[in-house]
UniProtKB/TrEMBL annotation, chain A:
GO cellular component: plasma membrane
Signal peptide boundaries: none
Keywords in alphabetical order: Cell membrane, Membrane, Transmembrane, Transmembrane helix, Transport
Residues annotated as transmembrane: 12-30, 74-95, 136-156, 235-256
This protein's name: Phosphonate ABC transporter, permease protein PhnE
Membrane topology note: Multi-pass membrane protein
Pfam family, one: BPD_transp_1
UniProt-annotated location(s): Cell membrane
InterPro entries reported in the protein's UniProt record: MetI-like, MetI-like_sf, PhnE/PtxC
PANTHER family: ABC TRANSPORT SYSTEM PERMEASE PROTEIN P69, PHOSPHONATES TRANSPORT SYSTEM PERMEASE PROTEIN
GO molecular function, one term: ABC-type phosphonate transporter activity
Main localization, broad class: membrane
From TrEMBL, chain B:
GO cellular-component term (any): membrane
InterPro entries: AAA+_ATPase, ABC_transporter-like_ATP-bd, ABC_transporter-like_CS, ABC_transpr_PhnC, MetN_ABC_transporter-like, P-loop_NTPase
PROSITE patterns: ABC_TRANSPORTER_1, ABC_TRANSPORTER_2
Any one Gene Ontology molecular-function term assigned to this protein's record: ATP hydrolysis activity
Protein name: Phosphonate ABC transporter ATP-binding protein
Keyword set includes Translocase: yes
Source organism phylogeny: Bacteria, Bacillati, Bacillota, Bacilli, Bacillales
Cross-referenced Pfam families: ABC_tran (PF00005)
Domain of life of the organism encoding this protein: Bacteria
Record's keyword terms, sorted: ATP-binding, Cell membrane, Membrane, Nucleotide-binding, Phosphonate transport, Translocase, Transport
UniProt domain ABC transporter: residue ranges: 4-248
Amino acid sequence: MNEKAMRKNRWQSVIFLLIIIVLTYWSSFITQFNFWDGLVTIPEATGWMLSNLSITQDSLERLPKIMETLVETIFMSIAATTLAAAVSLFLGLFGSNTTKVNSFLSVFARFVASVSRNIPVVAWSLILLISFGQNSVTGFLALFVGTVGFLTRAFMESMDEVGQSSVEALTATGATYFQIVSKAVIPQCLPQMLSWILFMIETNIRSATLVGILTGTGIGYTFDMYYKTLNYNAVGLVTLCIVIAVILVDLISNYIRKVIL
Amino acid sequence: MALLKVEGLGKSYTSDKKILKNINLEINPGEFVSIIGPSGAGKSTFLRCINRMVEFNEGKITFNQQDVGSLNKRELRRMRTNIGMVFQHYNLVPRLTVIENVLHGRFGYKTTMQGILGRYTEEEKERAFELLEKLGIQEHAYKRCDQLSGGQQQRVGICRALIQEPKLVLCDEPIASLDPNSSKIIMDHLKAITTELGITCLVNLHQVDVAQNYSDRIIGLNQGEIVFEGASHQLSEEQIHKIYGTKTKELIIA
Protein backbone atom coordinates (compact mmCIF):
# COMPACT_ATOMS: atom_id res chain seq x y z
CA MET A 1 0.00 0.00 0.00
CA ASN A 2 1.47 3.35 -0.97
CA GLU A 3 1.13 6.66 0.82
CA LYS A 4 -1.69 7.88 -1.38
CA ALA A 5 -3.81 4.82 -0.71
CA MET A 6 -3.15 5.13 3.02
CA ARG A 7 -4.37 8.72 3.04
CA LYS A 8 -7.43 7.75 1.04
CA ASN A 9 -8.12 5.00 3.53
CA ARG A 10 -7.96 7.39 6.45
CA TRP A 11 -10.34 9.80 4.76
CA GLN A 12 -12.76 6.96 4.21
CA SER A 13 -12.81 6.19 7.92
CA VAL A 14 -13.47 9.85 8.79
CA ILE A 15 -16.32 10.07 6.31
CA PHE A 16 -17.77 6.81 7.61
CA LEU A 17 -17.67 8.08 11.18
CA LEU A 18 -19.35 11.35 10.18
CA ILE A 19 -22.13 9.45 8.43
CA ILE A 20 -22.79 7.39 11.56
CA ILE A 21 -22.94 10.53 13.74
CA VAL A 22 -25.35 12.23 11.35
CA LEU A 23 -27.51 9.09 11.19
CA THR A 24 -27.68 8.86 14.98
CA TYR A 25 -28.63 12.50 15.32
CA TRP A 26 -31.17 12.25 12.58
CA SER A 27 -32.90 9.17 13.96
CA SER A 28 -33.13 10.62 17.45
CA PHE A 29 -34.56 13.80 15.95
CA ILE A 30 -37.21 11.87 14.03
CA THR A 31 -38.18 9.70 16.98
CA GLN A 32 -37.99 12.74 19.29
CA PHE A 33 -35.67 10.85 21.57
CA ASN A 34 -33.63 13.22 23.66
CA PHE A 35 -30.47 11.58 24.87
CA TRP A 36 -29.91 14.13 27.62
CA ASP A 37 -33.43 13.83 29.01
CA GLY A 38 -33.00 10.08 29.06
CA LEU A 39 -29.72 10.39 30.92
CA VAL A 40 -31.24 12.64 33.57
CA THR A 41 -33.92 10.06 34.45
CA ILE A 42 -31.37 7.33 35.18
CA PRO A 43 -30.65 8.23 38.84
CA GLU A 44 -34.33 8.54 39.57
CA ALA A 45 -35.14 5.20 37.90
CA THR A 46 -32.30 3.49 39.72
CA GLY A 47 -33.60 4.85 42.98
CA TRP A 48 -37.05 3.52 42.22
CA MET A 49 -35.66 0.10 41.32
CA LEU A 50 -33.61 -0.06 44.50
CA SER A 51 -36.48 0.88 46.73
CA ASN A 52 -39.24 -1.12 45.04
CA LEU A 53 -37.51 -4.17 43.62
CA SER A 54 -35.48 -4.94 46.72
CA ILE A 55 -36.22 -8.30 48.18
CA THR A 56 -38.03 -8.20 51.49
CA GLN A 57 -38.89 -10.78 54.12
CA ASP A 58 -42.40 -10.81 52.77
CA SER A 59 -41.31 -11.70 49.24
CA LEU A 60 -38.86 -14.34 50.44
CA GLU A 61 -41.79 -16.30 51.77
CA ARG A 62 -42.92 -16.73 48.21
CA LEU A 63 -39.58 -18.27 47.22
CA PRO A 64 -40.69 -21.96 47.30
CA LYS A 65 -43.54 -21.19 44.93
CA ILE A 66 -41.27 -19.20 42.65
CA MET A 67 -38.67 -21.99 42.65
CA GLU A 68 -41.34 -24.47 41.72
CA THR A 69 -42.39 -22.55 38.62
CA LEU A 70 -38.76 -21.82 37.78
CA VAL A 71 -37.87 -25.50 37.86
CA GLU A 72 -40.97 -26.26 35.82
CA THR A 73 -39.88 -23.69 33.25
CA ILE A 74 -36.33 -25.01 33.06
CA PHE A 75 -37.51 -28.57 32.54
CA MET A 76 -40.02 -27.46 29.97
CA SER A 77 -37.24 -25.71 28.05
CA ILE A 78 -35.05 -28.78 28.22
CA ALA A 79 -37.87 -31.08 27.12
CA ALA A 80 -38.82 -28.77 24.26
CA THR A 81 -35.19 -28.60 23.12
CA THR A 82 -34.42 -32.30 23.28
CA LEU A 83 -37.64 -33.28 21.55
CA ALA A 84 -36.97 -30.64 18.90
CA ALA A 85 -33.43 -32.00 18.55
CA ALA A 86 -34.80 -35.46 17.77
CA VAL A 87 -37.08 -34.06 15.07
CA SER A 88 -34.34 -31.80 13.74
CA LEU A 89 -31.97 -34.73 13.44
CA PHE A 90 -34.21 -36.31 10.82
CA LEU A 91 -35.00 -33.04 9.09
CA GLY A 92 -31.28 -32.25 9.08
CA LEU A 93 -30.48 -35.63 7.56
CA PHE A 94 -33.02 -35.10 4.81
CA GLY A 95 -31.92 -31.54 4.20
CA SER A 96 -28.14 -31.96 4.20
CA ASN A 97 -26.42 -32.48 0.87
CA THR A 98 -24.24 -35.19 2.38
CA THR A 99 -27.09 -37.43 3.46
CA LYS A 100 -30.12 -36.35 1.48
CA VAL A 101 -32.48 -39.11 0.39
CA ASN A 102 -34.08 -37.25 -2.48
CA SER A 103 -34.54 -33.65 -3.50
CA PHE A 104 -38.22 -33.53 -2.54
CA LEU A 105 -37.48 -34.36 1.11
CA SER A 106 -34.53 -31.99 1.04
CA VAL A 107 -36.66 -29.06 -0.11
CA PHE A 108 -39.35 -30.05 2.39
CA ALA A 109 -36.88 -30.10 5.30
CA ARG A 110 -35.40 -26.77 4.31
CA PHE A 111 -38.87 -25.26 3.95
CA VAL A 112 -39.98 -26.44 7.39
CA ALA A 113 -36.77 -25.15 8.93
CA SER A 114 -36.98 -21.77 7.33
CA VAL A 115 -40.66 -21.22 8.16
CA SER A 116 -40.28 -22.14 11.81
CA ARG A 117 -37.06 -20.20 12.19
CA ASN A 118 -38.11 -17.00 10.49
CA ILE A 119 -41.23 -16.51 12.59
CA PRO A 120 -40.02 -15.21 15.97
CA VAL A 121 -40.80 -17.25 19.06
CA VAL A 122 -43.00 -14.42 20.38
CA ALA A 123 -45.17 -14.60 17.27
CA TRP A 124 -45.37 -18.40 17.61
CA SER A 125 -46.56 -18.06 21.22
CA LEU A 126 -49.32 -15.66 20.24
CA ILE A 127 -50.39 -17.74 17.24
CA LEU A 128 -50.43 -20.94 19.30
CA LEU A 129 -52.17 -19.16 22.17
CA ILE A 130 -55.18 -18.56 19.95
CA SER A 131 -55.34 -22.15 18.78
CA PHE A 132 -54.31 -24.06 21.91
CA GLY A 133 -55.47 -21.75 24.66
CA GLN A 134 -53.65 -20.78 27.83
CA ASN A 135 -51.79 -23.83 29.10
CA SER A 136 -48.30 -25.19 29.33
CA VAL A 137 -48.64 -27.11 26.07
CA THR A 138 -48.79 -23.80 24.25
CA GLY A 139 -45.54 -22.58 25.78
CA PHE A 140 -43.93 -25.91 25.12
CA LEU A 141 -44.99 -25.90 21.48
CA ALA A 142 -43.85 -22.32 20.92
CA LEU A 143 -40.36 -23.17 22.13
CA PHE A 144 -40.42 -26.48 20.27
CA VAL A 145 -41.31 -24.97 16.89
CA GLY A 146 -38.70 -22.23 17.08
CA THR A 147 -36.05 -24.72 18.19
CA VAL A 148 -36.82 -27.16 15.38
CA GLY A 149 -36.19 -24.40 12.86
CA PHE A 150 -32.91 -23.35 14.36
CA LEU A 151 -31.53 -26.80 15.12
CA THR A 152 -32.46 -28.22 11.71
CA ARG A 153 -30.48 -25.44 10.10
CA ALA A 154 -27.52 -25.95 12.44
CA PHE A 155 -27.53 -29.75 12.06
CA MET A 156 -27.75 -29.46 8.30
CA GLU A 157 -24.66 -27.32 8.23
CA SER A 158 -22.74 -29.61 10.58
CA MET A 159 -23.60 -32.56 8.35
CA ASP A 160 -22.64 -30.68 5.20
CA GLU A 161 -19.26 -30.01 6.78
CA VAL A 162 -18.67 -33.71 7.32
CA GLY A 163 -18.52 -34.03 3.58
CA GLN A 164 -19.00 -36.83 1.17
CA SER A 165 -15.75 -38.75 1.68
CA SER A 166 -16.52 -41.25 4.44
CA VAL A 167 -20.10 -41.55 3.21
CA GLU A 168 -18.74 -42.56 -0.17
CA ALA A 169 -16.38 -45.09 1.38
CA LEU A 170 -19.11 -46.76 3.39
CA THR A 171 -21.48 -46.81 0.43
CA ALA A 172 -18.78 -48.64 -1.48
CA THR A 173 -18.60 -51.35 1.20
CA GLY A 174 -22.31 -52.05 0.69
CA ALA A 175 -23.50 -50.33 3.87
CA THR A 176 -27.15 -49.27 4.18
CA TYR A 177 -28.30 -45.67 4.56
CA PHE A 178 -28.86 -45.82 8.32
CA GLN A 179 -25.58 -47.65 8.89
CA ILE A 180 -23.80 -44.85 7.06
CA VAL A 181 -25.66 -42.16 8.95
CA SER A 182 -25.10 -43.71 12.36
CA LYS A 183 -21.46 -44.72 11.90
CA ALA A 184 -19.99 -42.12 9.56
CA VAL A 185 -22.07 -38.94 9.71
CA ILE A 186 -23.30 -38.75 13.31
CA PRO A 187 -19.97 -39.58 15.01
CA GLN A 188 -18.34 -36.75 13.13
CA CYS A 189 -20.87 -34.05 13.87
CA LEU A 190 -21.94 -35.20 17.33
CA PRO A 191 -19.81 -32.71 19.32
CA GLN A 192 -21.09 -29.84 17.21
CA MET A 193 -24.66 -31.06 17.45
CA LEU A 194 -24.46 -31.38 21.24
CA SER A 195 -23.00 -27.93 21.43
CA TRP A 196 -25.93 -26.52 19.45
CA ILE A 197 -28.42 -28.37 21.65
CA LEU A 198 -26.83 -26.89 24.79
CA PHE A 199 -26.90 -23.45 23.23
CA MET A 200 -30.58 -23.91 22.43
CA ILE A 201 -31.36 -25.04 25.99
CA GLU A 202 -29.77 -21.82 27.30
CA THR A 203 -31.63 -19.69 24.79
CA ASN A 204 -34.90 -21.43 25.51
CA ILE A 205 -34.63 -20.94 29.27
CA ARG A 206 -34.25 -17.24 28.55
CA SER A 207 -37.11 -17.07 26.09
CA ALA A 208 -39.28 -19.30 28.27
CA THR A 209 -39.80 -16.33 30.57
CA LEU A 210 -41.13 -14.21 27.75
CA VAL A 211 -43.15 -17.07 26.29
CA GLY A 212 -44.52 -17.68 29.79
CA ILE A 213 -45.68 -14.06 30.10
CA LEU A 214 -47.47 -14.36 26.77
CA THR A 215 -48.98 -17.82 27.21
CA GLY A 216 -49.52 -17.68 30.96
CA THR A 217 -47.26 -20.53 32.03
CA GLY A 218 -44.21 -21.15 34.17
CA ILE A 219 -42.00 -18.47 35.64
CA GLY A 220 -43.17 -15.92 33.09
CA TYR A 221 -46.71 -16.18 34.42
CA THR A 222 -45.50 -15.76 38.01
CA PHE A 223 -43.56 -12.68 36.96
CA ASP A 224 -46.57 -11.27 35.14
CA MET A 225 -48.89 -11.99 38.04
CA TYR A 226 -46.76 -10.21 40.65
CA TYR A 227 -46.16 -7.39 38.21
CA LYS A 228 -49.83 -6.81 37.60
CA THR A 229 -50.68 -7.02 41.31
CA LEU A 230 -48.01 -4.34 41.92
CA ASN A 231 -46.03 -6.70 44.18
CA TYR A 232 -42.71 -5.29 42.98
CA ASN A 233 -40.60 -6.91 45.70
CA ALA A 234 -41.69 -10.31 44.48
CA VAL A 235 -40.99 -9.24 40.88
CA GLY A 236 -37.45 -8.39 41.98
CA LEU A 237 -37.04 -11.83 43.54
CA VAL A 238 -38.36 -13.59 40.41
CA THR A 239 -35.93 -11.63 38.23
CA LEU A 240 -33.05 -12.50 40.51
CA CYS A 241 -33.99 -16.18 40.41
CA ILE A 242 -34.12 -16.15 36.62
CA VAL A 243 -30.74 -14.43 36.40
CA ILE A 244 -29.13 -16.94 38.75
CA ALA A 245 -30.73 -19.88 36.91
CA VAL A 246 -29.51 -18.63 33.53
CA ILE A 247 -25.98 -18.08 34.83
CA LEU A 248 -25.93 -21.56 36.37
CA VAL A 249 -27.16 -23.19 33.18
CA ASP A 250 -24.56 -21.22 31.23
CA LEU A 251 -21.79 -22.46 33.50
CA ILE A 252 -22.97 -26.06 33.37
CA SER A 253 -23.27 -26.12 29.61
CA ASN A 254 -19.88 -24.48 29.18
CA TYR A 255 -18.41 -27.20 31.34
CA ILE A 256 -20.12 -29.95 29.34
CA ARG A 257 -18.92 -28.34 26.13
CA LYS A 258 -15.35 -28.32 27.37
CA VAL A 259 -15.59 -32.00 28.20
CA ILE A 260 -17.08 -33.18 24.91
CA LEU A 261 -15.08 -31.05 22.49
CA MET B 1 -13.00 -66.60 -17.28
CA ALA B 2 -12.65 -62.88 -16.75
CA LEU B 3 -13.54 -61.48 -13.33
CA LEU B 4 -14.47 -58.13 -14.78
CA LYS B 5 -15.65 -57.49 -18.28
CA VAL B 6 -16.40 -54.02 -19.59
CA GLU B 7 -18.06 -53.65 -22.98
CA GLY B 8 -18.70 -50.37 -24.77
CA LEU B 9 -18.87 -48.37 -21.54
CA GLY B 10 -19.89 -44.74 -21.94
CA LYS B 11 -20.54 -42.04 -19.38
CA SER B 12 -21.48 -38.40 -19.61
CA TYR B 13 -22.57 -36.00 -16.86
CA THR B 14 -23.77 -33.40 -19.35
CA SER B 15 -25.04 -34.06 -22.85
CA ASP B 16 -22.26 -32.16 -24.62
CA LYS B 17 -19.23 -33.78 -23.00
CA LYS B 18 -18.53 -37.48 -22.73
CA ILE B 19 -16.28 -38.47 -19.84
CA LEU B 20 -15.87 -42.06 -20.99
CA LYS B 21 -16.19 -43.30 -24.56
CA ASN B 22 -16.57 -46.90 -25.61
CA ILE B 23 -14.34 -48.55 -23.01
CA ASN B 24 -13.69 -52.24 -23.60
CA LEU B 25 -11.72 -54.17 -21.05
CA GLU B 26 -11.25 -57.55 -19.46
CA ILE B 27 -9.57 -58.23 -16.16
CA ASN B 28 -8.70 -61.73 -15.01
CA PRO B 29 -8.61 -62.98 -11.43
CA GLY B 30 -5.31 -62.30 -9.68
CA GLU B 31 -4.17 -59.54 -12.00
CA PHE B 32 -2.63 -56.26 -10.91
CA VAL B 33 -3.72 -53.65 -13.42
CA SER B 34 -2.88 -49.94 -13.41
CA ILE B 35 -4.76 -47.20 -15.18
CA ILE B 36 -2.64 -44.17 -16.02
CA GLY B 37 -3.58 -40.93 -17.67
CA PRO B 38 -3.67 -37.17 -17.16
CA SER B 39 -6.02 -35.49 -14.70
CA GLY B 40 -9.55 -35.35 -16.07
CA ALA B 41 -9.03 -38.35 -18.33
CA GLY B 42 -11.91 -40.15 -16.60
CA LYS B 43 -9.90 -42.58 -14.45
CA SER B 44 -11.85 -41.96 -11.25
CA THR B 45 -15.17 -41.99 -13.05
CA PHE B 46 -14.30 -45.29 -14.69
CA LEU B 47 -13.41 -46.89 -11.37
CA ARG B 48 -16.66 -45.67 -9.81
CA CYS B 49 -18.72 -47.02 -12.69
CA ILE B 50 -17.55 -50.54 -11.83
CA ASN B 51 -19.25 -50.58 -8.41
CA ARG B 52 -21.89 -48.11 -9.57
CA MET B 53 -20.90 -45.32 -7.24
CA VAL B 54 -21.45 -43.47 -10.50
CA GLU B 55 -24.25 -44.62 -12.81
CA PHE B 56 -23.05 -45.19 -16.37
CA ASN B 57 -25.10 -44.37 -19.47
CA GLU B 58 -23.98 -46.86 -22.08
CA GLY B 59 -22.49 -50.29 -22.34
CA LYS B 60 -22.32 -53.27 -20.08
CA ILE B 61 -20.19 -54.22 -17.10
CA THR B 62 -20.04 -57.84 -16.01
CA PHE B 63 -18.47 -58.54 -12.65
CA ASN B 64 -18.25 -62.07 -11.30
CA GLN B 65 -20.77 -63.25 -13.93
CA GLN B 66 -23.28 -60.61 -12.85
CA ASP B 67 -24.59 -57.81 -15.02
CA VAL B 68 -23.74 -54.80 -12.85
CA GLY B 69 -26.07 -52.37 -14.62
CA SER B 70 -29.23 -54.43 -14.05
CA LEU B 71 -28.83 -55.08 -10.31
CA ASN B 72 -31.49 -53.79 -7.95
CA LYS B 73 -30.64 -52.06 -4.69
CA ARG B 74 -30.26 -55.21 -2.61
CA GLU B 75 -28.25 -57.05 -5.25
CA LEU B 76 -26.04 -54.00 -5.74
CA ARG B 77 -25.29 -53.93 -2.02
CA ARG B 78 -24.42 -57.63 -2.18
CA MET B 79 -22.13 -57.05 -5.13
CA ARG B 80 -20.36 -54.13 -3.46
CA THR B 81 -19.30 -56.37 -0.59
CA ASN B 82 -17.19 -58.19 -3.19
CA ILE B 83 -15.44 -55.01 -4.30
CA GLY B 84 -13.17 -53.17 -1.89
CA MET B 85 -12.30 -49.56 -2.49
CA VAL B 86 -9.26 -47.50 -1.48
CA PHE B 87 -9.32 -43.72 -1.87
CA GLN B 88 -6.81 -40.93 -2.40
CA HIS B 89 -7.92 -39.13 0.76
CA TYR B 90 -8.43 -42.41 2.69
CA ASN B 91 -12.09 -41.48 3.41
CA LEU B 92 -11.98 -42.77 6.97
CA VAL B 93 -14.18 -41.48 9.77
CA PRO B 94 -11.53 -39.32 11.49
CA ARG B 95 -13.13 -39.18 14.94
CA LEU B 96 -13.43 -42.95 15.28
CA THR B 97 -10.71 -45.41 16.19
CA VAL B 98 -8.68 -47.42 13.72
CA ILE B 99 -10.35 -50.69 14.63
CA GLU B 100 -13.84 -49.21 14.29
CA ASN B 101 -12.95 -47.92 10.84
CA VAL B 102 -11.63 -51.31 9.79
CA LEU B 103 -14.78 -53.06 11.00
CA HIS B 104 -16.90 -50.66 8.92
CA GLY B 105 -15.88 -52.87 6.02
CA ARG B 106 -18.26 -55.56 7.35
CA PHE B 107 -21.43 -53.47 7.03
CA GLY B 108 -22.29 -54.98 3.68
CA TYR B 109 -22.78 -58.36 5.35
CA LYS B 110 -24.97 -57.06 8.16
CA THR B 111 -28.53 -55.99 8.68
CA THR B 112 -29.11 -52.30 9.27
CA MET B 113 -29.74 -52.91 12.98
CA GLN B 114 -26.57 -54.96 13.51
CA GLY B 115 -24.62 -52.19 11.84
CA ILE B 116 -26.12 -49.39 13.90
CA LEU B 117 -25.55 -51.26 17.15
CA GLY B 118 -22.03 -52.20 16.08
CA ARG B 119 -22.51 -55.93 16.52
CA TYR B 120 -19.42 -57.70 15.22
CA THR B 121 -18.65 -61.38 15.67
CA GLU B 122 -15.49 -62.59 17.39
CA GLU B 123 -14.13 -63.87 14.06
CA GLU B 124 -14.61 -60.47 12.50
CA LYS B 125 -12.76 -58.77 15.30
CA GLU B 126 -9.94 -61.29 15.17
CA ARG B 127 -9.71 -60.89 11.44
CA ALA B 128 -9.54 -57.09 11.84
CA PHE B 129 -6.59 -57.39 14.21
CA GLU B 130 -4.88 -59.88 11.91
CA LEU B 131 -5.15 -57.43 9.06
CA LEU B 132 -3.85 -54.56 11.16
CA GLU B 133 -0.91 -56.71 12.15
CA LYS B 134 -0.29 -57.69 8.55
CA LEU B 135 -0.14 -54.04 7.54
CA GLY B 136 2.00 -53.18 10.56
CA ILE B 137 -0.34 -50.82 12.38
CA GLN B 138 -1.69 -53.06 15.15
CA GLU B 139 -0.25 -50.80 17.86
CA HIS B 140 -2.50 -47.97 16.64
CA ALA B 141 -5.70 -50.03 16.81
CA TYR B 142 -7.31 -47.94 19.54
CA LYS B 143 -6.07 -44.56 18.34
CA ARG B 144 -8.33 -42.11 16.63
CA CYS B 145 -7.72 -42.03 12.89
CA ASP B 146 -7.03 -38.29 12.80
CA GLN B 147 -3.94 -38.88 14.95
CA LEU B 148 -2.35 -41.07 12.29
CA SER B 149 -0.06 -40.03 9.45
CA GLY B 150 -1.24 -40.19 5.85
CA GLY B 151 0.53 -43.46 5.14
CA GLN B 152 -0.90 -45.08 8.26
CA GLN B 153 -4.40 -43.85 7.41
CA GLN B 154 -4.11 -45.33 3.95
CA ARG B 155 -3.16 -48.67 5.50
CA VAL B 156 -6.32 -48.47 7.62
CA GLY B 157 -8.17 -47.84 4.37
CA ILE B 158 -6.64 -50.98 2.86
CA CYS B 159 -7.60 -53.01 5.95
CA ARG B 160 -11.16 -51.77 5.62
CA ALA B 161 -11.22 -52.92 2.01
CA LEU B 162 -9.66 -56.31 2.81
CA ILE B 163 -11.98 -57.20 5.68
CA GLN B 164 -14.78 -57.21 3.12
CA GLU B 165 -13.13 -60.34 1.71
CA PRO B 166 -13.41 -58.83 -1.75
CA LYS B 167 -12.64 -60.40 -5.09
CA LEU B 168 -11.54 -57.08 -6.52
CA VAL B 169 -10.00 -53.98 -4.93
CA LEU B 170 -10.39 -50.65 -6.69
CA CYS B 171 -7.76 -48.09 -5.74
CA ASP B 172 -8.37 -44.48 -6.70
CA GLU B 173 -4.96 -42.80 -6.69
CA PRO B 174 -3.93 -44.46 -3.43
CA ILE B 175 -0.55 -42.73 -3.22
CA ALA B 176 -1.31 -39.30 -4.70
CA SER B 177 -1.27 -37.58 -1.28
CA LEU B 178 1.68 -39.49 0.19
CA ASP B 179 5.43 -38.98 0.37
CA PRO B 180 7.69 -41.34 -1.64
CA ASN B 181 8.49 -43.52 1.35
CA SER B 182 4.88 -44.09 2.40
CA SER B 183 3.98 -44.51 -1.25
CA LYS B 184 6.35 -47.42 -1.55
CA ILE B 185 4.94 -49.07 1.58
CA ILE B 186 1.39 -48.72 0.28
CA MET B 187 2.25 -50.00 -3.20
CA ASP B 188 4.11 -52.97 -1.72
CA HIS B 189 1.07 -53.82 0.39
CA LEU B 190 -1.25 -53.54 -2.61
CA LYS B 191 1.04 -55.77 -4.63
CA ALA B 192 1.06 -58.26 -1.76
CA ILE B 193 -2.73 -58.34 -1.78
CA THR B 194 -2.58 -59.70 -5.30
CA THR B 195 0.35 -62.06 -4.96
CA GLU B 196 -0.41 -63.44 -1.48
CA LEU B 197 -4.19 -63.26 -1.21
CA GLY B 198 -4.94 -63.58 -4.90
CA ILE B 199 -7.23 -60.56 -4.88
CA THR B 200 -7.41 -58.65 -8.13
CA CYS B 201 -6.30 -55.02 -8.00
CA LEU B 202 -7.29 -52.20 -10.31
CA VAL B 203 -5.29 -49.08 -9.48
CA ASN B 204 -5.52 -45.52 -10.80
CA LEU B 205 -2.10 -43.96 -10.79
CA HIS B 206 -0.45 -40.71 -11.68
CA GLN B 207 3.11 -41.94 -11.57
CA VAL B 208 4.13 -43.79 -14.72
CA ASP B 209 7.28 -45.30 -13.17
CA VAL B 210 5.30 -46.70 -10.23
CA ALA B 211 2.79 -48.23 -12.62
CA GLN B 212 5.59 -49.84 -14.62
CA ASN B 213 7.24 -51.24 -11.52
CA TYR B 214 4.23 -52.87 -9.98
CA SER B 215 1.67 -53.74 -12.64
CA ASP B 216 1.11 -56.87 -14.67
CA ARG B 217 -0.74 -54.76 -17.16
CA ILE B 218 -1.13 -51.05 -17.84
CA ILE B 219 -4.07 -49.23 -19.37
CA GLY B 220 -3.57 -45.71 -20.68
CA LEU B 221 -6.58 -43.44 -20.63
CA ASN B 222 -6.83 -40.08 -22.35
CA GLN B 223 -9.98 -38.00 -22.71
CA GLY B 224 -12.19 -40.93 -21.85
CA GLU B 225 -10.66 -43.37 -24.33
CA ILE B 226 -8.27 -46.25 -23.93
CA VAL B 227 -5.16 -45.26 -25.89
CA PHE B 228 -2.85 -47.98 -24.61
CA GLU B 229 -3.26 -51.46 -23.25
CA GLY B 230 -0.47 -53.92 -22.64
CA ALA B 231 2.16 -55.37 -20.34
CA SER B 232 4.35 -52.93 -18.39
CA HIS B 233 7.44 -53.50 -20.54
CA GLN B 234 5.49 -52.68 -23.69
CA LEU B 235 4.92 -49.14 -22.53
CA SER B 236 7.37 -47.07 -24.54
CA GLU B 237 8.37 -43.44 -24.32
CA GLU B 238 6.23 -42.79 -27.36
CA GLN B 239 3.16 -44.34 -25.82
CA ILE B 240 3.57 -42.32 -22.62
CA HIS B 241 3.65 -39.30 -24.88
CA LYS B 242 0.43 -40.44 -26.50
CA ILE B 243 -1.29 -40.95 -23.14
CA TYR B 244 -0.23 -37.68 -21.56
CA GLY B 245 0.08 -35.38 -24.59
CA THR B 246 3.15 -33.48 -25.75
CA LYS B 247 3.47 -30.88 -23.05
CA THR B 248 3.38 -33.36 -20.21
CA LYS B 249 5.98 -35.50 -21.88
CA GLU B 250 8.40 -32.61 -21.89
CA LEU B 251 7.68 -32.09 -18.22
CA ILE B 252 8.44 -35.70 -17.38
CA ILE B 253 11.79 -35.60 -19.14
CA ALA B 254 12.71 -32.29 -17.53
